[in-house]
Amino acid sequence: MTPRIDPKTTLTALRDFCAEHLGADLADRVVGLARPGFSLTEATPGQAAGHSRFGGEAMPEPGTPWPVCEDLPLSLLAVLDTDALAPWLGDLLPPGTGLLNFFRLDKESEQSDPTAWKVAAGFGPEGPEAGRAIAARSSHAVETEPPARSSVFAPVPWAAEPGFALPDTWDTAWDTLDLGYAGSDYDAVEAFKDAIRTEWSPPGMLYCEDMAFGRPVFPTGSSSVMLNGDDSNRYHHLLQLSDRHEWHLDGEGGWMHWSIPTEALRAGEFGQAIPTPDHW
């Protein structure tokens, strides 16, 4: 991935666009919610963002235990090469984070183990046991064959187009602007949220099906749901996979997300990443 425009220039263009429609003060507050991220699309030869891809074999460091749920191995869904993405993310990640391997209990694909549904029933879609994110230093990571009963999906290398993501329409992040539920600022922001999804194309703004970092999209009209009622604004989005892939989460309409407490992300503690899916 070679960004054509740097993050600072892109964010300034987005802020100027917002100021045109919201005024300077409100634009600063809205753009303060924007987070850097990447639209992920199938790469042409030579275009892939490092090792970033959907499917294929996992790339952990040697000796890393394969993640399981109960006694059933999880399946590798995606790899993000943060070394290729880091220039756009600033100080969000510790230097040398390397590769992030995203695993999930596969109970939907044609490869899924017959016992997967029974295992999954004990945890629910948001259960942290059913999903895992494992980091590996790029210089140490090796492609690793999965154990028996783990699904392997055909690899699709990803190109990564950088930009900034604002919260989805119903995301509770908008509540942090403290606009109340009446008044000109509230009305202006509500109209703005609708227009950027339907009429306008703000410069540098991401709104995509498959996404790294940024902010999650929720087609069901909901927002992030955290276990134990934790505040979703304490978390940072890691990866979004839409329902167009060969696997499906909890039936038709399922979109998969992983999130992590922002403090854990900055510390490189990816064991705290959890699944935060959106499903009908």
How would you describe this structure to a colleague?
The structure is a single chain. With 280 residues, this protein is an alpha+beta fold. It has a single domain (7-275), classed as Hypothetical protein YwqG fold (Roll). The protein contains six helices and twelve strands. The strands form two sheets. Strands 7-6-5-2-8-1-9-10-11-12 form a ten-stranded antiparallel sheet. The chain has a two-stranded antiparallel ribbon with strand order 3-4. β3 and β4 form a beta hairpin. The chain is globular and about 60 Å long. The mean pLDDT is 90.
CATH topology name, in short, is: Hypothetical protein YwqG fold
- Summed over residues and divided by their number, the pLDDT gives a mean of 90
Low-pLDDT segments: none
In helices, the fraction of residues equals 10-25%
Main sheet characteristics = 10 strands, antiparallel
Number of helices: 6
Helix/strand order, N-terminal first? HHEEEEEHEHEEHEEEHE
CATH superfamily caption? YwqG-like
Strand order of the largest sheet: 7-6-5-2-8-1-9-10-11-12
Q: Mind telling me the CATH class?
A: Mainly Beta
Beta-strand residue fraction: 15-25%
Ends apart, CA distance between termini: 34 Å
CATH architecture, by name, is Roll
Calculate Rg over CA atoms. Answer: 19 Å
Instruction: Using the alpha-carbon principal axes, give the shape.
Output: globular
What structural category do the secondary elements indicate? alpha+beta
Strands, total number? 12
